[in-house]
Amino acid sequence: MLITKFSTNYTSPVASDETPNGVAPRPGRILALDVGSRTIGLAVSDPLGITAQGLETIRRQNKRVDFSALYHVIKDYDVREIVVGLPLRMSGAEGTQSARMTAFAEELRAKFKLPVHLWDERLTSAEANRILRESEMSIQKRAAVVDQLAAVLILQNFMAHRSSTTPDCSTDAPEL
């Protein structure tokens, strides 16, 4: 399979972290998607892949419109990789929604010719709702940003995993 799957066990990805041709992706922004039946929450990294920023949530209409909106985000932010939240069961098993997200991720990879990673998103929406409740934001405002915050959490977890598995090059730097 050409799509990378990761679990929330940050030390053990489900598959290798490589692009389809086996070469690590060039540095650039990463786009995270929290895909639901009615909306797609979006978050994008900074160019160095350190911070995550929420973007406006896409209201789903049909595949053509959804992919057009994603195309504009990918183009505007010069996205180099995509991370899609993978809804696993609490047991870690894949269900019907997981199969749909795997197929969606494959469509993204084929359409945009970018590396696509599936990331275990268990409890990200619950965590997003908890954070928003604690912020004392109104229910209407929470509903408008919960998918965006879930995408930010997916992206932050993905980047934390990546940075924890990337060798630290700072020890190779010459002393000044």
Describe this protein's structure:
With about 180 residues, the chain is of the alpha/beta class. It has a single domain (about 25-165), classed as Nucleotidyltransferase, domain 5, CATH 3.30.420.140. The chain has 4 helices and 6 strands. It has helices at about 65-75, 95-110, 125-135, 140-165; strands spanning about 5, 30-35, 40-45, 50-60, 80-85, 115-120. Strands 1-6-5-2-3-4 form a 6-stranded mixed beta sheet, sandwiched between helices. Strand 5, helix 2 and strand 6 (about 115-120) form a beta-alpha-beta unit. Helix 3 (about 125-135) crosses helix 4. The radius of gyration is 16 Å and the shape is globular. About 30% of the residues are buried.
Sum this structure up briefly.
This protein is 39% helix and 22% strand.
Topology:
Elements: E1 4-6, E2 29-35, E3 39-45, E4 52-59, H1 63-76, E5 79-86, H2 96-112, E6 116-120, H3 124-134, H4 139-165
Parallel strand pairs: 1-6, 2-5, 5-6
Antiparallel strand pairs: 2-3, 3-4
Helix pairs in contact: 3-4
